[in-house]
Amino acid sequence: MNQTEKARAFHALHQKGNPIVLYNIWDAGTAKAVAEAGAKALATGSWSVAAAHGFADGEKLPMSVLVETAKSIADFVDLPLSVDFEGAYSAEPERAAANVARLIEFGAVGINFEDRVVAGEGLYPIESQAARIRAIRAMADGRDMPFFINARTDLFLAESDLAKHAGLVDEAIERGRAYAAAGGNGFFVPGLIDPGLIEKICAASSLPVNIMMRAGAPDVKTLAKLGVGRISYGPGPYRSMMEKLKQEAAAIYSLL
């Protein structure tokens, strides 16, 4: 498949009630392993890519390193690739779009794009984030690329008290609708694990809803029944692999 065909295939994999499952990777080697395991598409996790290069999450990883990592994955594995691009390394819409253009040039067919103010506090106002999405959409459309913008809200991830998540649903729905109108293709709500609230957001969203697997989250089959269109694993695979590596290394060194 060429890049445009991959982008169209990636869109088609997002179906409410029949979600695409993305086991997040962080380099070309893990991309190959996950592809060989049966994945239909690939997605990086920003936390994992940063950690693999010795950086903290939150755009601490130089963008040049992230772009080169994406290129190495796209060159090595012939599957659609979505890149977790955090806030696109710019608060300014046109600069954010220009940064995303570099990912398109190197083979990516989609991004996660979050509404958290990466270098500050809180979330962008809805219209400000919608303006950034519009700029990215216009840039991609200008290249005749059906680029997949997975518009992420950090409302739930930023609130550690799960009892308060119900009070955030209305704003989440409002943000989802605004992001869809601006040109988003998916709506990502990491941190949300309550089945009833997930179902409510799925019912209200015109976009396929992305849930991130974490402790306490419903299983894949349950999420599908709730109407979810995309399931991802965030930093979980990286943490699991690093723990296994550490255990195996410790077993060897304990014999010395």
Automatic annotation (TrEMBL):
Query: Matching InterPro entries, A to Z?
Result: ICL/PEPM (IPR039556), Pyrv/PenolPyrv_kinase-like_dom (IPR015813), Pyrv_kinase-like_dom_sf (IPR040442)
Q: Which domain of life is it from?
A: Bacteria
Q: Which organism is it from?
A: Rhizobium etli (strain CIAT 652)
SUPFAM superfamilies the UniProt entry points to: Phosphoenolpyruvate/pyruvate domain
Q: Which GO terms describe its molecular function?
A: methylisocitrate lyase activity
- What is the name listed in the Swiss-Prot or TrEMBL entry for this protein? Putative PEP phosphonomutase protein
Source species taxonomy: Bacteria, Pseudomonadati, Pseudomonadota, Alphaproteobacteria, Hyphomicrobiales
PANTHER family to which the protein is assigned, alphabetical: CARBOXYPHOSPHONOENOLPYRUVATE PHOSPHONOMUTASE-LIKE PROTEIN (AFU_ORTHOLOGUE AFUA_5G07230) (PTHR42905:SF16), PHOSPHOENOLPYRUVATE CARBOXYLASE (PTHR42905)
Keywords, ordered alphabetically:
Lyase
Its EC top class is lyase
Q: Which Pfam families match?
A: PEP_mutase
List the EC numbers from the record: 4.1.3.30
